[in-house]
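Protocol step 4 of 6: structure prediction from sequence.
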Amino acid sequence: VSLLATGHVTGDDLMVDLTADIENLDLYALNLHDTSFILKSQTNLVLGMHPDDAYDVELHLKSLDLSLRDSLYRMHPVDLTFKTGRGNTTLDLESYFYQLTLAADANITDVADAFIRLPGYYLSDRSLDTIRFTMPEFSLSGRLEYPRTFASLLFPELPVFEEFTINGGYSKVTDKLTVDLFFPLLRAGSLQ
């Protein structure tokens, strides 16, 4: 395990940069997990704090690989880039079987708050509602390729699918929220 931490102060701004290069960290040998669990990763985290209570976060995970040797599951390497700060959030996730991209014109806490309050907004009587609701503009796309044999082993009671895609977003200009889900080749037996 290799760790590097740096930081600097510019005026009232504080920046911290942490980098970790982890090769075969055995969490079982360290008594942090009850079965064999090996972690490999290259990670960079940059945190910025500003005097107006604003913050910036950048997280880059390269080749995150989790090996659970006593189970059926071994995670394929994944690349993740996440950035959030004043007025924007981006998330890019890529791996062998899945991909997800999110871009929003707000920081992640505002995006999460809007999604949490969204059902209440649509179910309420907006003519009587005195609470102002705002949805940040965003776009979302994702893909999950799901091997049929893997799915039937882990979730035999669920319908079998080979691919799932999601596309959507919200536009302030049209005030329209869209979410499209697509399951090509979905085969369902009886669900009980």
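Step 5 (inspection) to follow. Residues 187-192 have pLDDT under 50 and may be disordered.
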